[in-house]
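Let us begin with a simple case.
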Amino acid sequence: MITRRDFLNGMALTGAGALWHPFNSLAALAEPGPYPPALTGLRGAHPGAFEAAHALALEGAAITGAPVAPAEKYDLIVVGGGISGLSAAHFYRRQVKSDARILILDNHDDFGGHAKRNEFTVDGKTLVTYGGTQSLESPSDYSQEASALLRDLGIDVDAQAQAYDREFFARHGLSMGVYYDAVTFGRGALVRGTLPTRRSAEYYTRQWVPGVQLAPEFAATLAQAPLSGAQRAQLREVLAVPEHITGYFRSAQGEQRFYEQSYVSFLRSCYLIEDEALLKLLSMPLAEDAALGGTGVSLPLALSGGLLGLPPAEKFAQWFNDPSLRPEPDDGQDEYVHPFPDGNATIARALVKALIPAVTEAASLEQCVGARFDYTRLDMPENAVRLRLASLAVHARNEPGGTRVRYLQQGVLHEATDSHTVMAGWHMMAAHVVADLPAVQKEAMRANIKMPLVFVQVALRRWQAIQRSGVAAAYCPGSPFQFVQMDFPVHMGGQAPSAGPNAPVSLLMIRMPCPPLIEATVPDLLRAGRAELMGTSYETFEQQVVAQLQGMYGQQGFDAPRDIAAITVNRWPHGYVWEEAQYQGQAASTLAARRHGRIAIANADAMGRAYTDAAIDAAWQAVRDLKRAR
């Protein structure tokens, strides 16, 4: 087993008290300690960050007793220190009160939410990468408010695109591929080629990992894949889309079938595919974006994602008189070339720098990328804006002329009062914290579920085996981690792509813990995936990482004990917003986002979209709503 660096700082963080009462689990995390971005082991929903919340939400544990000190007074309290919460503080000072005193509470030991920064030091070189939100997605489509915030922070999306090294992968002869693991397919093989979708190779070089060399289309790689003759025959039929498939949807039940059937059920009923390896191969390409696989993929979602076996989208739009089914052209989106070295953690860091200048001496956005923030400056009495980590909000209510928020820190109860509160965390938790919300809004928040996901960053000392394989980004439908890719090559803030195969690099491995071939409702599938994620130990994740990388690149000389320097597992039991969440016949987010007196609701949940601009737009909307409540 690989020796892990800083496995939760020796597991000392949770302290002995956390073993007997979940409300004490935040205690040690509140003290100044290790630099959070450099911690490895379990991150994201790390030990100490969620136990008290689970006790409150799942077990109905009551918060009793008096606060330990008199209530602090602020103009605004923000619950949630992710991009949405930080943006809400920014907008409040811009639109409501320029000198507002603001308290931002977050239950984690780091700010940024899913915009999580990971750092490694390997052989004297610092690798900066991310454990969540990857990049700005189509920034040319951002709202005026989101675009203005980026400009306020000094983010130039055109300059950012130029910082992406489009030639890096070509210089090293790297493409994309499909990994057929031995357990699922009988024999392991890493094959250069595109994913099994209608998408072109050009699409993937723009929208998946820009700059990778063009790969052969999936249909052209079947002879190299470790598939039986029967499996190849079924795949050829799926690629051909025979005439009886058109009849299946043009029948009297066709429209109902399309909108109610899952993609896997369609493959089984129309193509008579029962082979689990083929079902996984065909149904998992959307997992990276939708955090869903197998039966969790609806036919409309499969159609929009270009999954195989369906007639063209234009046909469905015509048959069912639904223009929304017409596909966006492959070249109709911004190229996916707007990542910072640490993903969108740079946005969170720039917001914190603007709100709390003393946290770093960095004078520019680029300097923020490489700077080591001083976490001891986040919550100083002299700050107009105070960011209080390891602090779990447990109760919020309206009072005459303001609101009152109670929170746990160091295992004891505190409270603060203010003129306004923004709930910028996960909506299902907000339904428990704001106890007097209307019942219909609470139910909408509970319906507004999120999809679990795991982002594992693996620091490699060298990557000659990857170069020899020719595959820098792989689709792995039967493996524990469905997607594996080398880090985006970005020149910014003193960070640069790996100097070459003998130099360190970070490798991203993504898992969507959603049961792939079980017939169940999406909410039930997501709950099962969440339970699996939270029940998986770091040691198990580590074993899965090692085995999968050894299987993928072992024939090219990869040796895990020699080549892996460190592993950080960023687990997000409440990750991406499930955009199809409904309540009472409408989007669950619409009802969930309603202002409640002087308490406004933000987070990407409020927009029903799992994107950074949605988080910013929700913050702007929340502050706009609070202005009306004055």
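The second case is a distinct protein. As before, the sequence precedes its structure tokens.
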Amino acid sequence: MPITEFLERNARLYPSEISLVEINPANQPERHITWREYNLIESSEGDKYRREMTWRDFDIRANRFANLLCTRGIKKGDKVAILLMNCLEWLPIYFGILKAGALAVPMNYRYAAEEIKYCAELADVSMLVFGPEFVERVNSVKDSLNITDYFFVGKDEEMPEYADSYAKMAYFCSSVVPPVEISDEDDAAIYFSSGTTGFPKAILHKHASLVHSCRAEQAHHGQTRDDVFLCIPPLYHTGAKMHWFGSLLSASRAVILRGVKPEWVMQAVSEEKATIVWLLVPWAQDILDEIDRGEIKLEDYRLSQWRLMHIGAQPVPPSLIKRWKSIFPNHDYDTNYGLSESIGPGCVHLGMENIHKVGAIGKAGYGWQTKIVGSDGSEVERGQVGELCVKGPGVMTCYYKNEKATAEVLRDGWLLTGDMAQEDEEGFIYLVDRKKDVIITGGENLYPVEIENFIRKHDAVKDVAVIGLPHERLGEIAAAIVEVKPECSLTEAELNAFCEGMPRYKRPRKIIFADVPRNPTGKIEKPRLREIYCGKSLVAQQNEIV
């Protein structure tokens, strides 16, 4: 069945229960505004601290937008792009596109104008829904795009003349489900790879993939209607949305928080009675740092209902979780591994019962299979390093319009992840590094994640990234870009002395004190670092990968 049926079921069974809440901490609390009130007030009044909608309202909004798309000529299989910051409108727009039989094409809100153009052309986008933050970027490329309609989500005075108001146009459309037949084998969405390899690829998924991610997420974290999920990461990415799919399946409330400041996170957990929070490594570190400095006092917040903190999207330093559990001993912890090509998180799953294995990404998730293979494609022995492969109902259909790239990563139903990993004697999988990030120095393979995890143990280190720098004799040497905590000091000599705890060949040969750039999903932007410190352009790096 298509994923839209879960929304329709929730609207039918729990019409008056709250489905989504949006919190915008940048605006001071003025008054509580329900979604129904928001529909009736001027758009200039809609930018408030808190908004909410029921399951029935959610479904009505999705139906209205679906019918609007149909009146504009959108047919089954057409592509509609979403370029929005996280907001209450995001998910009803997404589901409206699916209900119209079209494919939703979420775009990274950090894309520059040329990247918007590139992705729109790559995915054959014929319609774009965008917000005020993107007007200037869209203006600069719209004349070169093959897009027939633009819908604007925001205040009328900020809307460009070539766009129509999403709220006003959809409000007058039918709230009945449009007569479009959708099956689980129909194409549902195109996501873009995170861009950590240079240029995004368009990843095609069916409704069946989305449905499986719902079932896997609930199987892993046991969401019930009593849970409240605090959603902070960007909804354009598979990670945040697929974790929210657990709320969709269990008909439980979710809170969309527009901001990542530690005090905002804690306030939202407290005020909205959140039970599940998904964080990225830097956000968890920032919360712990503010607690240590006394800037956050736990007694100021209602936290007893918070049952689960989980992290994904990147390797998780065991020292971080040890520190977290020392402050929040009653929290369950979990980590999920996944790729956009495997419909986000969950193809490998640690499990809340396996906190003694922190550092591992886990075992095959619900409905998934895993194997680790060598360069010849055969499985390696336990304990040896190889490339992690996954197989299951959430594997992408293909890289859209890219048969060559698809053939390189899809083999007999198995997805080659590009991540180097090893399995311990109990079957738990540990990430070693990205295949493309392995540093070969004097014939030895160095795995940056191992070095990064060691350096992060230093009390003064906030973040670290290790890359290879060209070297005339050794080919490459390991360089550590180290971001020091604001309240701390650290010298190169002190860090080199600390690194003596590693084997000599693994120690970084160069230390650079600088900020570590991460993308919105928390992944270190190593192509950007290589461009800065190695002089390699993103184009050159992409050619090396291809």
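Residues 30-46, 537-546 have pLDDT under 50 and may be disordered. The first strand starts at residue 18 and ends at 23.
Keep these points in mind for the review questions at the end of the chapter.
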